[in-house]
Write a structure and sequence with these properties.
Blueprint: E1 4-8, H1 14-21, E2 26-30, H2 37-43, E3 49-52, H3 60-64, E4 71-74, H4 84-89, E5 93-96, H5 102-117, H6 120-128, E6 146-150, H7 154-165, E7 169-173, H8 179-185, E8 188-189, H9 193-198, E9 202-205, H10 219-222, E10 230-233, H11 242-250, E11 256-259, E12 279-281, H12 290-310, H13 324-347, E13 354-361, H14 369-380, H15 394-401, E14 404-410, E15 418-426, E16 429-438, E17 441-447, E18 450-454, E19 458-466, H16 471-481, E20 486-493, E21 499-506, H17 512-519, E22 524-533
Parallel strand pairs: 1-2, 1-3, 3-4, 4-5, 6-7, 6-9, 7-8, 9-10, 10-11, 11-12, 13-14
Antiparallel strand pairs: 13-15, 15-16, 16-17, 17-18, 19-21, 19-22, 20-21
Helix pairs in contact: 1-12, 5-7, 13-14, 14-15
Length: about 525
């Protein structure tokens, strides 16, 4: 008799469905007509697991109407269509298939580059229309051209491999790619985004969508590109400002663009890009190959089967692979470790090659593997392929990026009964944050070795400045002028008259223009705005 109901709400490989149906404990329902939220919520009411691709949205309403739900499986990589915070709150594991479409997406991006270079779609359309106009479709070779790869995760690395086989010079921009890893891939590492793109004849994008990467190719940056530059995006809509891109194409600032993703999907009929010249468009086909869909369909079916029958957690994006008793004990340290990793990633030097953890006190006497995974996951969330990083694959992602991960333990308590120190280092530079618990509440107690105290909430502003009178008044006035309230403040300095560190907790995040004004204040050496969360 069936014990678990599995709702398949998007089309997946028949082989994957057959795998699930072969298990007597499963009642498998395939319902591909759940585009409306109310219909989806009703169908999910008695489900123990839901399998989706990108066609439907697993919203808060769907999750809250499914009291028996244990897991949501995404046949693919992106989980933008799943409300992960609500799933986590309700104890629902969200799992994806990060490896199934790597080759498919890399090949799609490469295909778009070649089609754009040789004007293939337009030439085909002219033949179909009865024309024979060879002069209008003179293209350009990719051999000997400079390619800039923005994001050197799995897909970016596969694209670079193919580009090198075609005789292209490859520049890589990825703040999380180490120098050694770049050398092993045979690419030139560039740590400055503007410098990376201005040399490019072709740019291919393989970055995650984060606040830092949104509109990374904006009007200002597009205006600096070579006029013969061509852009390919098979990653995420929104990495490019589509309106600015349309203008750049129409005004001849760049030579062309090939997109598989858009800021608005599907793009409406009046979308500016649709009337821009020298373009190639496909409707989000990166994972649309027989092989990729077969792979992810089977992989997600196996993942759901193992979780429902044995409690195994594979490729989870919102919780570690751990039994409930251990999770309850380590829970606070896991969430705090993830937060510390996320904070360090925002102040770390570019292209850090080592992430070091040190545990002091009682926490260092036990098994810290899960906490280390949490720190690493938090640190890598903003790296290329961020939506693929979880507790299970974090170490593998770090290896692929050339990030060496080390940990040490000091079981005896030092200044604090429990202390977690996280440090990221690159050549000649490092950044570190240490945290502990005060009465059960997490606290940041050191930044770059200097003693501070702050609750990791909201927006944190790190300011390094010369230790002299008037500095606090200067930056406080600038924040006040921008209507940004300071909720808390912690001060430290290396010596009198040396360099001071201020850690401010703000009620709202400062804009780039506000940060620019702060940097103009005489005596400020460095300033970083960091999102800590709620």
């Amino acid at each position: 008799m069936a014990q678990f109901k599995i709702l398949v709400a998007d089309p997946i490989s028949p082989t994957g469905i057959d795998l699930l149906k072969s298990e007597p404990a499963f009642d498998v329902e395939v319902n591909l007509n759940l585009k409306q939220e109310d219909d989806f919520a009703a169908a999910a009411a008695d489900a123990h697991a839901i399998i989706v691709r990108s066609g439907v949205k697993v919203t808060a309403k769907v999750l809250e109407n499914a009291p028996h739900l244990k897991a949501v499986g995404r046949a693919g990589v992106g989980v933008d269509n799943i409300d992960i915070p609500i799933a986590s709150k309700r104890g629902v594991v969200v799992m994806n298939t990060p490896g199934g479409n790597t080759i498919s997406t890399a090949e799609q991006a490469f295909t778009l580059m070649m089609a754009l270079a040789r004007k293939t779609p337009r030439a085909h359309a002219s033949i179909v229309n009865g024309e024979w106009d060879r002069k209008s479709f003179k293209g350009t070779e990719v051999f000997g051209k400079t390619l800039t790869v923005l994001g050197m995760g799995r897909i970016g690395a596969e694209f670079a491999k193919r580009a090198k086989a075609f005789g292209m010079r490859v520049i890589a921009y990825d703040p999380y790619l180490s120098k050694n890893r770049a050398e092993s891939l045979g690419v030139e590492l560039q740590t400055d985004l503007d410098a990376a793109v201005v040399e490019a004849d072709f740019i291919t994008m393989h970055m995650p969508m984060t606040p830092e990467t949104k509109h990374m190719l904006n009007a200002d940056r597009l205006s600096k590109l070579k006029k013969n530059c061509r852009i390919i995006n098979c990653a995420r809509g929104g990495l490019i400002d589509d309106n600015a891109l349309a203008t750049a194409l129409k005004e001849g600032q760049i030579a062309g663009a090939a997109l598989d993703v858009f800021e608005v999907e599907p793009p409406p009929a009046d979308y500016p890009l649709l009337s821009a010249p020298n373009t190639v468009f496909t409707p989000h086909l990166g994972a649309s190959t027989d092989e990729a869909q077969e792979n992810v369909g089977i992989e997600i079916a196996e993942t759901i089967r193992e979780h429902l029958l044995h409690g195994t957690v594979i490729n989870a994006v919102n919780m570690p692979n751990v039994d409930p008793a251990t999770l309850e004990k380590l829970g606070p340290f896991l969430s705090f470790g993830e937060l510390l990793g996320r904070l360090v990633s925002q102040i770390a030097p570019a292209n850090a090659s080592v992430l070091r953890l040190n545990y002091c006190g009682k926490i260092g006497a036990g098994d810290t593997t899960l906490i280390s995974r949490a720190v690493l996951k938090g640190y890598l969330e903003r790296s290329s392929g961020a939506d693929q990083v979880n507790y299970v694959n974090a170490t593998g992602v770090a290896d692929k990026l050339g990030l060496r991960f080390t940990e040490s333990r000091v079981p005896e308590p030092t200044e604090f009964s429990d202390l977690i120190e996280v440090e990221a280092t690159a050549e000649g530079a490092s950044a570190s944050i240490s945290g502990t618990f005060f009465g059960g509440d997490p606290r940041i107690v050191k930044v770059n070795g200097r003693r501070v105290e702050a609750r990791p909430v909201g927006t944190l502003l790190f300011i390094e400045n010369l230790d002299r009178p008037g500095m606090i008044a200067a930056y406080s006035a600038a924040l006040g002028k921008a209507n940004i309230n300071i909720a808390d403040m912690s001060l430290a300095r290396d010596k009198e008259g040396g360099v001071a560190l201020t850690l401010l907790t703000l009620d709202s995040a400062p804009s780039e223009s506000v940060l620019a004004e702060l940097r103009k204040i005489e005596g400020i050496r460095q300033i970083r705005s960091v999102a800590a969360g709620a």
